[in-house]
Design brief:
Layout: H1 9-28, H2 31-37, H3 41-89, H4 99-124, H5 130-149, H6 157-184
Helix pairs in contact: 1-3, 3-4, 3-5, 4-5, 4-6, 5-6
Length: about 180
């Protein structure tokens, strides 16, 4: 009789396999349909327990991995653009520069910091500003260390602008991504 189904070792292994399968099906929204028609109650209890455990750990692991990848991508965008600007212009970022170049490089840095924060948040898919905050810290801390240690000829314009303008711009970029996400729902 189907209702008096007794679990065996073999059926318990099947239940674990079904639980893994249902974890995938649950993402598609079809679990409610399958619960009602296809599986014995004991398997469903086992599957619910396994799916909730597996699902939350998997989602947490994926969120952490996506967040790390987003932060790395945002940092590469910001650092790569800054490195490319100073390399192509042949200007020392820790040395003196003309006022026009300083204004251009600050605007350039703020623009790429906005893009970096937006892309980092987009990759991480978080519903908070943690990604932007971490990226802002990654931009601000080296700038602060560079101000304190003064590695160049004493000109602090690039480090100060990174600390004052570009680090907050990366947070604003993540905030823009988050506000666009909230408006779409």
């Amino acid at each position: 009789v189907f209702h008096d189904w007794q679990p065996t070792i073999r059926s318990q292994l099947k239940a674990k396999r079904i639980a893994a399968l249902l974890a995938v099906i649950e993402d598609a929204g079809a679990l409610h349909f399958l619960e009602k028609r296809s599986f014995p109650k004991l398997v469903l209890i086992k599957c619910h327990f396994t799916i909730s455990q597996l699902g939350s750990r998997y989602n947490q692991l994926c969120m952490n991995a996506r967040t790390a990848i987003g932060i790395i991508a945002g940092d590469l965008i910001f650092i790569g653009s800054a490195g490319l600007l100073f390399y192509l212009s042949r200007v020392d970022p820790h040395g003196p520069a003309s006022l026009g170049f300083m204004a251009f490089s600050i605007a350039y840095g703020v623009g790429f910091a906005l893009v970096a924060g937006f892309v980092a948040g987009l990759i991480s898919r978080r519903r908070d500003l943690i990604t932007g905050m971490i990226l802002a810290l990654i931009i601000a801390v080296p700038a602060l260390i560079s101000i304190v240690t003064r590695p160049g000829a004493g000109a602090l314009w690039s480090q100060t602008s990174a600390l004052v303008f570009m680090a907050p711009a990366s947070l604003v970029g993540d905030w823009i991504r988050l506000s666009r996400l909230r408006r779409s729902f």
